[in-house]
């Protein structure tokens, strides 16, 4: 693997270091066996990305079935049971099998590359993370062959206790939480150790790429939140099968205990989903605005502040349960506080774009979709954090609209920005730009047509998790609009799938650094060789690739200036 890679990457300008002799190197396996046994972070990353995207498609099909049912008033397309199963599977899939683990997929592929490491700290543990995730998904989806769970992704007690949810589907849900939780926990420890110990020389905390910062905070939040939900679902399991009564009021237990344990995990889970999305945005914006990120330290620090505050707000999901006013006020105020570090981020992102030399490439456009939609989700979040407002809209479509603006409009648009940005690095090929822009346009229009009007549906009083509604007022019209939007959104997503499938084999060759990126993953080939880097450069700033390009240019000045008239502007950019 040694020095033949050197000539194709900008490493050529740097002094070679002595080769290391490796002992006990395993022979390269081929084909399927290689994928099943791999411990390479890049292959595991690809396994994560592909698997989670398949779950995204499943969750998306479930969403479309829900929307079909709601397309007309008093529809009889689905039975109430099937409807409950669908929204439970949809929510559970999107959260536990798509957004959280796809961030681990990006993290797996890119954290080692961005910090100049040759793999994760514990490669085998890394493989275990992936296989635990897949087992969790399979165990959960196996329930469609008997009875899927019906108690919602929150599985509130007593609904999820044996008396009301006798089917094994609820147990499949419990095992899903156990297995994916274990997967994330093991993965989180791995990320933490990797980031703490394996950074390139010179990469102090102040030079850590912002995406890596968010994966670090993601990992810490997972380590803090997951044990709580793991304990809670274990108590639920023993309540269901071994005669305990932790959540059963008839045995002196408390159903509200479940809600506290669930949301102590559940709210941080929201930040677990969205922080790495913030990280992607913070990487993509400066590259396509051709300007350094505005306020690196503030953007990095605000992630930490958000994570800390995120641990203090869980009971804003429980404003309608009996609580003393002082408790309501505490959780309202702590929720308000999160707007400050979030506002800092949004301000800094906008300031990064301000007077930039903007290149309207697909990754950037998805970022702009993210910015506008996440802002709306954030604002409605502040609204529902006001507890008297929440008393009015709790469990209505207003809340459904709010959290889809955060998760779909925010996290998923950031994920798509990441797909378009990093696809060339992973596959060595470019995605098609016009198709990417069409995909964005349909997703942006479809998303807003689906969910903007759900705020109104909610304020008109339509509760969430109901399989039918009466034909009163404009309810049917609004729901029809929402359903049409969902299919436009689905079409937009389909275009990206087609784009990916086409470009994997046929896309134009990307080369090591098609975007003139700032971070180290662009230093190596696309796709990177097994060992990532033959030599790891010394890091001198938060944008090591700019330093390297400058260095290369300085050393070959006359030749380069003649070859590329734009070189100078790139350097200044
Ligand atoms: C592909 C576009 C999507 C559409 C059309 C869609 C549609 C819906 C609908 C109509 C419901 C309400 C069901 C009900 O309350 O009766 C719902 C619930 C939900 N959705 Fe989505 N959704 C989409 C994407 C997502 C994403 C990306 C996430 C998370 C990352 C997500 C998370 C949830 C959750 C957690 C629930 C609540 C489930 C429950 O009540 O237990 N959705 N979705
Ligand atoms: Cu919350």
Automatic annotation (TrEMBL):
Its EC number is 7.1.1.9. Residues 557-573 have a biased composition (Low complexity). Keywords: Cell membrane, Copper, Electron transport, Heme, Iron, Membrane, Metal-binding, Respiratory chain, Translocase, Transmembrane, Transmembrane helix, Transport. It catalyses: 4 Fe(II)-[cytochrome c] + O2 + 8 H(+)(in) = 4 Fe(III)-[cytochrome c] + 2 H2O + 4 H(+)(out). It comes from the Bacteria. It is an enzyme of class 7 (translocase). Pathway: Energy metabolism; oxidative phosphorylation. Cytochrome c oxidase is the component of the respiratory chain that catalyzes the reduction of oxygen to water. Subunits 1-3 form the functional core of the enzyme complex. CO I is the catalytic subunit of the enzyme. Electrons originating in cytochrome c are transferred via the copper A center of subunit 2 and heme A of subunit 1 to the bimetallic center formed by heme A3 and copper B. NCBIfam families: CtaD_CoxA. This is Cytochrome c oxidase subunit 1. The lineage of its organism: Bacteria, Bacillati, Actinomycetota, Thermoleophilia, Solirubrobacterales. The gene is ctaD_2.
């Amino acid at each position: 693997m040694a020095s033949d890679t050197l000539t194709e990457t900008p490493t050529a300008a740097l002094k070679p270091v002595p080769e290391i002799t490796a002992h006990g190197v395993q022979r390269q396996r081929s084909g399927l066996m290689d994928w099943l046994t791999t411990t390479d972070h890049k292959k595991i990353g690809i396994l994560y990305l592909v698997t989670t995207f398949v779950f995204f498609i499943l969750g998306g099909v479930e969403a479309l079935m829900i929307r079909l049912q709601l397309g007309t008033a008093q529809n009889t397309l689905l039975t109430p049971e099937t409807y409950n199963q669908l929204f439970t599977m949809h929510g559970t899939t999107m959260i536990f099998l798509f957004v959280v683990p796809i961030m681990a997929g990006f993290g797996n592929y890119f954290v080692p590359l961005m910090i100049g490491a040759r793999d994760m700290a514990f490669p085998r543990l890394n493989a275990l993370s992936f296989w635990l995730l897949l087992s969790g998904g399979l165990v959960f989806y196996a329930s469609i062959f008997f009875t899927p769970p019906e108690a919602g992704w929150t599985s509130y007690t007593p609904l999820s206790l044996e008396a009301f949810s006798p089917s094994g589907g609820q147990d499949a849900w419990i095992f899903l939480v156990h297995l994916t939780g274990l997967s994330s926990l093991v993965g989180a420890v791995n990320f933490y150790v990797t980031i703490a110990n394996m950074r390139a020389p010179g990469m102090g905390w102040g030079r850590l790429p912002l995406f890596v910062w968010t994966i670090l905070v993601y990992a810490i939040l997972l380590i803090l939140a997951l044990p709580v939900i793991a304990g809670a679902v274990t108590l639920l399991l023993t309540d269901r099968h071994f005669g305990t009564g932790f959540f059963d009021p008839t045995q002196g237990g408390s159903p509200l205990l479940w809600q506290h344990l669930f949301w102590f995990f559940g709210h941080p889970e929201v930040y677990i989903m969205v922080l790495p999305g913030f990280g992607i945005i913070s990487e993509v914006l400066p590259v396509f605005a051709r300007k350094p990120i505005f306020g690196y330290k503030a953007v990095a620090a605000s992630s930490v502040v958000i994570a800390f505050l995120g641990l203090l707000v869980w009971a804003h999901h429980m404003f309608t349960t009996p609580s003393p006013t002082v408790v309501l006020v505490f959780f309202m105020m702590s929720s308000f506080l999160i707007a400050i570090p979030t506002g800092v981020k949004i301000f800094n992102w906008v300031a990064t774009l301000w007077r930039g030399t903007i290149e309207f490439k697909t990754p950037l456009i998805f970022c702009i979709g993210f910015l506008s939609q996440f802002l709306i989700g954030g604002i409605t979040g502040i609204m529902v954090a006001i507890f008297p407002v929440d008393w009015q809209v709790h469990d209505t479509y207003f809340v459904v609209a709010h959290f889809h603006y955060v998760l779909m409009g925010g996290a998923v648009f950031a994920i798509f920005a990441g797909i378009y940005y990093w696809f060339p690095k992973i596959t060595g090929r470019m995605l098609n730009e016009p198709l990417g822009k069409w995909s964005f346009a349909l997703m942006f229009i479809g998303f807003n047509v689906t969910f903007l009007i759900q705020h109104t549906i909610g304020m008109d009083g339509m509760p969430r998790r109901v399989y039918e509604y009466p034909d009163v007022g404009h309810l049917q019209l609004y729901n029809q609009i929402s359903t049409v939007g969902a299919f436009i959104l689905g079409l937009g997503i389909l275009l990206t799938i087609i784009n990916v499938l086409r470009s994997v084999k046929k896309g134009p060759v990307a080369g090591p650094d098609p975007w003139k990126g700032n971070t180290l993953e662009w230093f190596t080939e696309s796709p990177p060789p097994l060992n990532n880097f033959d030599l790891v450069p010394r890091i001198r700033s938060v944008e090591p690739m700019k330093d390297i390009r400058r260095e290369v240019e300085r050393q070959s000045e006359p030749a380069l200036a003649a070859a590329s008239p734009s070189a100078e502007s790139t350097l200044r950019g």
